[in-house]
């Protein structure tokens, strides 16, 4: 790769072998470089593939203003998360997590600590992401000699949830968390049951609700394709279907979204399993 434009001493714009615009970061990578110069491979720390002009501008603004050690730390956390969670994580995480991390460090240095009001729910419903968040605190301490409070593990977990489920931002991840929690309460109340949180059925239901919440927030509900099946569900699983209808009422009143019959079918089936 060759330099297309020097942004600063540590950041240059270039194009990869597919002729796609990239931002290349590395300590001293742009020092005394000019357009057309070959990029020193040994100095490359991270290559960001640019999807659109907006993303390019956001990345340039962020990477130009954030200390390089914060960027390196965020990249290390993302690398660890990808391995630990073993799932696809949107590259947008590099923007959102780097920005959050740098601001969190700034707050810490100023003696400002934001309490995470959702920490209990995050531990409970996104336990894998939360464990990654805890390890992220260790990575931060090792690299920057700063020990951020446990609340930050929860915030990092929410960023990972949003990036792995491809929702827009932490606010949407928070909405999803509230939705899952309230749906579980509806099921418990309607069926008068207590969940066996160690059971495989509970785990499957929780997984279903995560993707269900993602679809609702992203306006991508499952399409209707089986009218006969919904009739069978209504007849055979009356109590569970009635519970699913309560969930639909909740979604409509709180999120102004309409659930398809197919979504109701899947909810009913999972509710039936968990109520056994």
From TrEMBL:
Annotated protein name in UniProt: PRD domain-containing protein
Domain (PRD) ranges: 65-170, 171-276
Keyword Repeat among UniProt keywords: yes
PANTHER family attached to this UniProt entry: CRYPTIC BETA-GLUCOSIDE BGL OPERON ANTITERMINATOR
Keyword Repeat belongs to the record: yes
Organism: Fusibacter ferrireducens
SMART domains: CAT_RBD
Gene3D superfamilies xref list: CAT RNA-binding domain (2.30.24.10), PRD domain (1.10.1790.10)
Alphabetized PROSITE patterns for the sequence: PRD_2
Entry keyword set: Repeat
């Amino acid at each position: 790769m060759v330099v297309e434009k020097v942004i600063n001493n540590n950041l240059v714009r270039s194009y990869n072998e597919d002729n796609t615009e990239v931002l290349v970061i590395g300590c001293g990578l742009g020092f005394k470089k000019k357009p057309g110069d070959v990029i020193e491979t040994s100095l490359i720390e991270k290559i960001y593939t640019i999807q659109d002009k907006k993303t390019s501008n956001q990345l340039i603004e962020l990477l130009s203003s954030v200390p390089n050690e914060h960027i390196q730390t965020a990249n290390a956390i993302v690398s660890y998360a990808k391995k630990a969670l073993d799932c696809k994580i949107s590259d947008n995480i590099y923007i959102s997590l780097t920005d959050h991390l740098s601001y969190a460090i700034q707050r810490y240095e100023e003696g400002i600590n934001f309490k995470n009001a959702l920490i209990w729910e995050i531990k409970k419903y996104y336990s894998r992401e939360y464990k990654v968040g805890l390890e992220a605190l260790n990575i931060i301490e090792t690299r920057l000699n700063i020990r951020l409070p446990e609340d930050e593990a929860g915030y990092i977990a929410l960023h990972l949830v949003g990036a792995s489920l491809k929702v827009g931002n932490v606010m949407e991840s928070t909405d999803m968390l509230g939705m899952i929690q309230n749906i579980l309460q509806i099921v418990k109340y309607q069926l008068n049951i207590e969940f066996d949180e160690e059971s495989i059925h509970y785990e499957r239901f929780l997984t279903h609700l995560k993707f269900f919440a993602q679809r609702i927030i992203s306006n991508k509900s499952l399409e209707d394709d089986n009218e006969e099946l919904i009739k069978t569900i209504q007849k055979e699983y009356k109590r569970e279907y009635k519970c699913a209808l309560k969930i639909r009422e909740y979604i409509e009143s709180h999120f102004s979204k309409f659930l398809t019959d197919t979504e109701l079918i899947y909810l009913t089936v999972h509710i039936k399993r968990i109520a056994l």
